[in-house]
Every structure is written in C-alpha cells, then in structure tokens.
Write a structure and sequence with these properties.
four-stranded mixed β-sheet; globular; about 20% strand; alpha/beta; about 400 residues; 14 helices; Urease, subunit C, domain 1; 2 domains; 16 strands; TIM Barrel
Length: about 400
C-alpha cells in the first residue's frame, strides 16, 4: 500500500496542535493512517507552508437559497430579510440548480467536507446525489397558524421521506423547527416525537424582535404577521425571553444546535448549558453582520464553557460560503480567541453535532476527513490574508 505524507509549519489534528515537525500520513484513498514524528516519517514528504487541518464542517447553511446571492440588501434586519426571501424565492428551476452547483463548488474549494443544510424543498436533492459533500438534512417546518399544523407536519414528513428515498440515511435527516416564533404550540406537539435520537437545529435569538415578541407580544415580528395577514390571536406572550421559554420542547432530542444567537445573553447561555451536555451553539458571524449588522457576544459563550460550532448561513445572507472567512471575522473582532479554539469548533465539534464524528472532523486513524491547508498565517494564527485550500 502506498501512502502520502504531509508536513507543514503547523498541524492541527481536530482537537489540538501537534508537535512541530509532526507528519500526517494518509493512504492513497485519503484515509488517515497515522501522525508520526519527523524522525519516524522518513522521506518522501509533501511539504507546505502554513497549517494542515481536517476538512471544515459547515454546521448551518441554506443551500437551496443560493439563487438569491446578492439580491437582498444588507443590514436591514431579520424581518425585512425574511420578507425579501419570501418575495424572491420563486425562480426558474434552471437558475436554482446552477446556483446550488456553484455554491457547492465554492464550499469544496474552501475545504468544507460536510454541511448541516436546512431544507424546505427538494431543490438540493439532485446536487446532493453526486456525493461530493456529506450533508445532514434538516427538514425545516414553519407553521404559526395552529389550523395549518397538521398540513405542515404532513408535508414535512413527506419531504423527509423523499430525502431518504433518494439516498440520505436516517442518521442524517430530521424534522426541525424553523424558529420559536414561527412554530405554533400545536405544531411543536406534532413534531416532538420525531426529535428522539436526532440532532435538532433551530434559529435562536437572531434578532431583538424575537425576544421582544415573547416578552410583550409586540415589535417587528408581531408587525410582520399583521402585514402577512397571519392570525396571531392564539399567541399569549409568556413574558420571558424566547430561549428559556421553548428549550424544554427539545428535551427529546439527542443533540440540539441553536443557530445564530445574535441576541443571546449570559442567562440564556447558562440555562442552555445546564439543560443538556449535548447542546451546541452555532455561530454564523458574517451572516449576522449581513442581516443585523452585529455579532453575538462571543466571550459570554466562552465564559460559560459552551460547546461551539460554525456555519455560514446562505449565500443570500453572506458574501461567500467559507468557514475560514467566518473564523477570520471572529478573529478580527475578538483577537484573543485562538485559532486552535476556533478550529475545534470548525472540525471535531461540527462533525459531532451532525453525527459525522465516526467519519470526519479529526485525524484519527481510519477517518477520511479531508486535508485542508491554511496559508498566510500570522505567527501561527489566522490573519486577514489567510486562505484555505483542500489538498486531499
């Protein structure tokens, strides 16, 4: 059997930085064989300038919105963003498929090997059938009108069945709620039995309007429903912020991923961290800036020892689909957060929340995690000029 041996200035194995000079050894098919010291590795080394890391995990994306690239104005807030998506979602099938293909191409080039993808339609099924990237398919349900709960639930089950029929496996398809303000109590009750044994994703506290809606029943979301002529009379605001209100509805899930968290505070974080050891906070900083013009208070999550992962959101709310670019944005605003720490979020943590930990996310023997090179570092840290490229 022949092997490839990779040596760079730095080697990150999915959990920690390895000793200077360590060499990653892979089989010809890309599976990891071992990590050896320079003395043990011998000759025939492929040498690189930069840092070798496992393939990135994009824990949150909306691939099916790729045709909306550049069409939605920036920094106009979540409510206007949602309304823009609704208005422009209907496009030709040819445009949608070409846009999805280009978006997946860009993720491959950026070193992404797996994606947690939000699915409201079958639009991404054709591209996913080629198996170029591994996907966890979150079949997302909306339904604020209680009278539509049964219809919406049935449609979600049918969509999930189509993904399974086309080759997705049961471990990587789940019904998932869009957000606490878009799923009625009746729809929650229908969905809850489907959470068992699954990873469940939910958009959490992406806007100030979400917390205002649950505290007072007023604000931008109430105005949005009124404008859309959706009956809101069934909703009685609990008088508390959204996360502590709905978290218990997810108690049956094997893993929980809270996405965005732009307006999540310390009390919210602590309540979630104490709720279960299997809860992950997903940051999508570039999308947060695109939509709301701000970032989550990331030091609060670190102080609470929260488990973190990274996503890109969609190309409708971002300028690119690159996990490295997400890390660069975090580094720009919070320079004390180390590259090593963010790489854990981007690799092994992401693989774990999406149930790919037996295949991807780190350089343990037998895994086919992909090999990515990060170039143009600054003293071993990611900098503004850093770039990533997949080499295996």
């Amino acid at each position: 059997m022949s092997y490839r041996k990779f040596k760079a200035d730095y080697l990150f194995d999915g959990f920690k930085m390895r000793e200077v000079g360590d060499v990653l050894v892979c089989r010809e098919d890309g599976r990891v064989e071992s990590i050896l010291s320079a003395d043990q590795a011998g000759g025939d080394l492929e040498k690189f300038s930069g840092m070798i890391v496992p393939g990135f995990i994009n824990s949150h994306c909306h691939l099916e919105l790729s045709h909306l690239k550049g069409l939605i104005p920036e920094k106009e807030g979540l409510v206007d963003f949602v309304l823009s998506v609704i208005r422009q979602r209907s496009q030709s099938e040819e445009l949608k498929q070409e846009s999805i293909r280009r978006a997946e191409d860009s993720m491959l080039k950026a070193g992404i090997v797996a994606v947690g993808d939000i699915c409201n339609t079958i639009d991404t099924l054709e591209e996913k059938s080629f198996g170029r990237i591994s996907y966890y398919n979150f079949i997302e349900l909306f339904g604020w009108d209680p009278q539509q709960s049964a219809t919406r639930y049935k449609a979600g089950k049918q969509l999930a069945a189509l993904f399974l029929e086309k080759g997705a496996d049961n471990m990587h398809v789940s019904l998932t709620p869009h957000a606490p303000y878009s799923v009625s109590d009746q729809l929650w009750k229908l969905m809850e039995p489907d959470f068992n044994g699954k990873t469940i994703s939910i958009h959490n506290q992406e806007s100030a309007a979400e917390n205002e809606f649950f505290i007072s029943g007023k604000g931008g979301l109430a105005a949005m429903y009124a404008g859309m002529k959706i009956d809101n009379n069934h909703f009685k605001p609990p008088g508390i912020r959204s996360l502590p209100y709905y978290l218990n509805k997810l108690k049956g899930a094997a893993k929980i991923m809270l996405v965005h968290n732009t307006y999540t505070n310390a009390n919210d974080i602590n309540s979630a961290v104490n709720f279960t050891d299997h809860l992950f906070f997903c940051l999508c900083p570039n999308a947060n800036q695109y939509i709301e013009g701000r970032l989550p208070d990331i030091p609060l999550f670190l102080k609470s020892k929260a488990t973190m992962v990274l996503g890109t959101d969609s190309i409708a709310s971002n300028h690119q689909l690159s996990i490295l670019e997400e890390m660069k944005t975090i580094k720009e605003h919070y320079p004390f957060i180390s590259t090593r720490e963010m790489l854990v979020w981007a690799t092994s943590n992401g693989a774990k929340v999406l149930n790919f930990e037996n295949e991807l996310g780190d350089f343990r023997k037998g895994k086919k995690s992909g090999v990515v090179l990060i170039k143009n570092l600054l003293g071993g840290e990611i900098g503004p000029g850093s770039t990533s490229v997949r080499i295996v």
